[in-house]
TrEMBL record:
Keywords: ATP-binding, Helicase, Hydrolase, Nucleotide-binding. It comes from Mesobacillus boroniphilus JCM 21738. One of its GO terms (cellular component) is cytoplasm. InterPro entries: Helicase_C-like, P-loop_NTPase, RecQ_Zn-bd, WH-like_DNA-bd_sf. GO terms for molecular function: 3'-5' DNA helicase activity; four-way junction helicase activity. Gene3D superfamilies: P-loop containing nucleotide triphosphate hydrolases, Winged helix-like DNA-binding domain superfamily/Winged helix DNA-binding domain. This is ATP-dependent DNA helicase RecQ. GO terms for biological process: DNA recombination; DNA repair. PANTHER family: ATP-DEPENDENT DNA HELICASE RECS-RELATED, DNA HELICASE RECQ FAMILY MEMBER. Residues 1-116 form the Helicase C-terminal domain.
């Protein structure tokens, strides 16, 4: 980006420490960063009026997530644009992520073998979380699904409970895959994108704007930056003091 003249750009991801994440958020909100390349988690809680572009490099797993993420743009009412970059096969990443969020059959088999061998009751699982996660290879999300299911069972029947949990996981994966297919169908549709989204939520398109979507008529030149990116110095704010104040405020909350 810097080679293209965009000097004030940063990357935001899960590998950053808490202070770095807060710093990037505040620099962006205060107009000292022009572009942030980030995971979808960055947009949560960001309320910045003049976001002009939201560009997706990867296809979201469901249309609801996509709408929420592009909704960060144009909060000041001015024209903004959402761009989704797609190449055939990109959906495979979404399918892999959906499957990875759920425990697989091997993990569930390991879990119940351990429970049976040690005669562990479901109500006592909270004391063995770290041990079970290591033995079964659960991620935090996978464990929450397992724990939530077993914590609502009163009478323990390992065989029946295992089959029921496997069925639950299969059903959830089917729902996730269906959402991905709907998202993919929307990407590929040649009809009005705006109209298709509204129809998904039981609404009708009342009026089509001049620059509607790629399937209708849209002038991309309308969205090109006419002013140079901000050259505002990052040193204009004492970020050490600002960051300390923000973190201290969070601790008090």
């Amino acid at each position: 980006m810097r080679e293209k003249g965009i000097k004030n750009a940063m990357a935001y991801h899960g590998g950053l420490d808490s202070e770095s994440r807060v710093l990037i958020q505040q620099q962006f909100i205060n107009g000292q960063l022009d572009v942030v390349c980030a995971t979808s988690a960055f947009g949560m809680g960001i309320n910045k009026e003049n976001v002009r572009y939201v560009i997706h490099f990867h296809m979201p797993m469901q249309i609801e997530s996509y709408l929420q993420e592009i909704g960060r743009a144009a909060r000041d009412g001015r024209d903004s644009i959402a761009i989704l970059i797609y190449s055939p096969g990109d959906e495979q990443l979404a399918y892999q992520l959906a499957e990875g969020e759920l425990p697989d059959q091997y993990q569930i088999e390991r879990l119940f073998a351990f429970l049976i061998d040690n005669r562990i009751q479901y109500k006592n699982l909270a004391d063995r979380v770290e041990e079970l996660s290591m033995i079964c290879g659960f991620t935090e999300i996978q464990w929450r699904i397992v724990e939530d299911y077993l914590s609502n069972i009163e009478a323990v029947d390992y065989k029946i409970d295992k089959q029921s949990l496997l069925q639950l996981i299969e059903n959830r994966l089917e729902v996730k895959n269906t959402k991905i297919k709907k998202m993919l169908a929307w990407v590929h549709t040649n009809e009005c994108k705006r109209k298709a989204i509204l129809e998904m939520f039981g609404e009708e398109l009342q009026e089509r704007p001049r620059n509607c979507c790629i399937s209708c008529e849209i002038n991309m030149d309308h969205y090109k930056e006419t002013e140079p990116f901000s050259e505002q110095s990052l040193a204009a704010v004492d970020w050490k003091q600002e960051l300390a104040s923000i973190l201290l405020m969070r601790e008090r909350i």
